[in-house]
Amino acid sequence: MGRQRERRFSLRVTAAFFVLLALLMVLAATVVRAAARAFDQRPVWVLALAGVGAAVLLRRVRRRRRLSAARLARHATETLEQAARTAVAALDAPGAREGTGPGAAEEPGPAGVEEEEPYPAEGAVEFEAEIAALCQRDGCSDVDVVGGAGDLGADVVARAPDGRRLVIQCKWYGEENKVGSQDLQRFGGTCFAVHGADLALVVTTSGFTLPAVEYAEQCGIVCVDEEALRAWAAGTAPSPWQEVPAAG
Question: Is 46 exposed, middle or buried (0-12, 13-18, 19+ CB in 10 A)?
């Protein structure tokens, strides 16, 4: 009896399913027929209704897409926040704070304390002595500081390692006070004729004006400005006389 009831119930459900399916098919056919008739009579209205329906459908699709984009943006934001927390935690670690962790950079010196630089010196006399010391360091002989009253432009004289006589004028100037052409003209009038220089140099803690450089090039005087002087003192550039080969 139980099996018969179960079978009878399944048959009813199946029959009801097919009945509903048939009704739906009839209803669909009726709707299609009515739509075709309406399209024949009023095609503009049908097209308008179809456009409205398509717009509603498109709006729903777009809304779903916006929701999906917003969900992705929220996930991305959460991921970035988590990465930021991880980075902050790493920076707050004792090794990172104290600079003792792997790859820690070299600790800088005390704030406001600059490394000691050799130039400019405290005065013109000290500057001349420093230039003489550089000449001795780089192998010059017979180095002598002769600057003073009546020096006729020569402050340091020396003998280069290749035997040439060096005559050097030292200009201890401020940064904004450049060596001008008149300074070069006065030195050019004595360095060769009076002091017998094979190579004449003007070394300054400042710079040179363009006319001074042009005059020096015409007379064969070597100009050493602040930048070149620091490179010479640091050993990152050759000595000034090495850049001017001796005459053959």
Answer: middle
**Per the structure block, which two tokens stand in for 217?**
């090039």
What DSSP state is assigned to residue 179? B
Q: What domains are defined for the chain?
A: 2-89 (no CATH), 124-243 (3.40.1350.10)
| Structure tokens that stand for 50 in this block | 């179809």
Tens of pLDDT, residues 166-178: 999 999 998 889 9
Q: Find out whether 215 and 246 touch, Cβ atoms under 8 Å.
A: no
Residue 118 contacts residue 233 (beta carbons within 8 Å): yes
Can you tell me the distance from the alpha carbon of 41 to that of 188, in angstroms, rounded to the nearest whole number?
111
pTM: 0.52
Helix (H) or strand (E) holding 81: helix 43-91
When pLDDT is cut at 50, 70 and 90, the band that residue 222 belongs to is very high
Q: Is 5 a residue whose pLDDT tops 60?
A: no
Write out the two tokens for 230.
């620091």
